[in-house]
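testing teh design pipeline on a random one, pls ignore if ur not involved
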């Protein structure tokens, strides 16, 4: 890596550090269509929404993971062992909670635990991007997020690709 590319990468990582992933995720997720697009991709294609938001955050900063799978293994394990069971239980209790205040209270507690697990995931992903994982600068100033995400998760259905386009339309470049 040349001195110029090292300096550029340091500058890009500094931009990440100044824009916490959690804050980005909350703001981005609240934009029109983003929540429904993320949930469709999660439920229809098995996409990890935290990783999806992380990749959008990186993309916004002109970065992409150079080598993701090995570095993400521990985070995926956390998601499968902690976040997914909480989400499953929260969803399973939804109907019962509508008619039972006690179950509704338990469901709210589970929902808070799920949110805390997702925040922990995002913190781990941010740490990975800031300190550990090799990142690459995107090759063009307006790279195509759709191609990147579609190839990562093998998205092919029309509604999946439309969901990714929604994300791309709502993602403001810096």
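output:
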């Amino acid at each position: 890596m040349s001195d110029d590319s090292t300096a550029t990468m340091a500058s890009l990582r500094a931009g990440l550090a100044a824009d916490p992933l959690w804050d980005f995720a909350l703001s981005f997720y609240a934009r029109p269509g983003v929540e429904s697009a993320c949930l469709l991709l999660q439920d229809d294609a098995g996409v990890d929404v935290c990783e999806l938001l992380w990749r959008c955050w990186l993309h916004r900063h002109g970065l992409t993971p150079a080598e993701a799978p090995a570095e993400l293994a521990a985070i995926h394990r956390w998601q499968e062992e902690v976040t997914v069971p909480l989400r499953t239980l929260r969803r399973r209790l939804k109907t019962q909670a509508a008619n039972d205040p006690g179950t509704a209270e338990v469901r709210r507690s589970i929902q808070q635990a799920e949110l805390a697990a997702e925040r922990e995931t995002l913190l781990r992903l941010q740490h990975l991007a800031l300190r550990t994982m090799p990142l690459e600068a995107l090759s063009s100033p307006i790279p195509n997020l759709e191609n990147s995400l579609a190839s990562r998760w093998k998205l092919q259905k029309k509604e999946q690709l439309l969901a990714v386009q929604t994300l791309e339309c709502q993602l403001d470049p810096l």
